[in-house]
Amino acid sequence: MGNKAADAVSSLLCCPCRCLFCGVFSCLFSVLTCVLFAAGLVALVLYLLFRPHIVRAAAVSADLTAFTLTPRTWILRHNLSVDLQLRNPNKRIELHYHGVAAQAYYQGQRFADTDLPDMYQCTGETSPPIAVAFGAGESPLVGGIAAAGFRREAAEGAVFSVDVKVTAHTKLKLWLIKVPGPKTKIDCPLRIHRRNDTADGDTPPQPPFQPTECRVWF
């Protein structure tokens, strides 16, 4: 009998706490559900209203005036410039790019980088070609596999696989409202003919650069 009485008292003492905990948990869950539903509804309305689209990017020209590898030390000497064109396909969103940086890679290794000025794009605008000038410089090429890849491409017509990447922070202008946008990443895998291989008048003319669509994501 004593144990049953103690259990009854313990149950009476714990039951209000359990009810209070269940009530608070249920209330928080209901509030969280309402907030998530409201946020999803707002996001859906904004999407249907502005219909955002990913920026389109293309490398329209490229010039590789120097691209040589010193034997044994594997120092890559380069002089690269690329003209990049951006298109804003959005009809209701203006774009402001800031903190724009470009990097050039060969065989997965970065050999040059540069900063670019801020850029603005109105709705539906295709920008004039943006000069991405890495300039002349040199950088070590690490690993025998990378050096072997360079020698192979040099022997196969001096057309090199260069990867140009651009990153930029964005601000979105929605009518009169400016809001922070996602970080834009652009990747342009290019095939560029080294121009100094065709400087001799006895060699055939350099093939023109083929404009290349770039991959864009956030």
Automatic annotation (TrEMBL):
- Residue ranges spanning the membrane: these are 29-50
Principal localisation: membrane
- Record flagged with keyword Transmembrane helix: yes
Instruction: List GO terms (cellular component aspect).
Output: plasma membrane; plasmodesma
Q: Name one GO biological process term.
A: defense response to other organism
> Where does the protein end up?
Membrane
- What keywords are assigned to this protein? Membrane, Transmembrane, Transmembrane helix
Protein name according to UniProt = Late embryogenesis abundant protein LEA-2 subgroup domain-containing protein
What is the originating organism of this protein? Paspalum notatum var. saurae
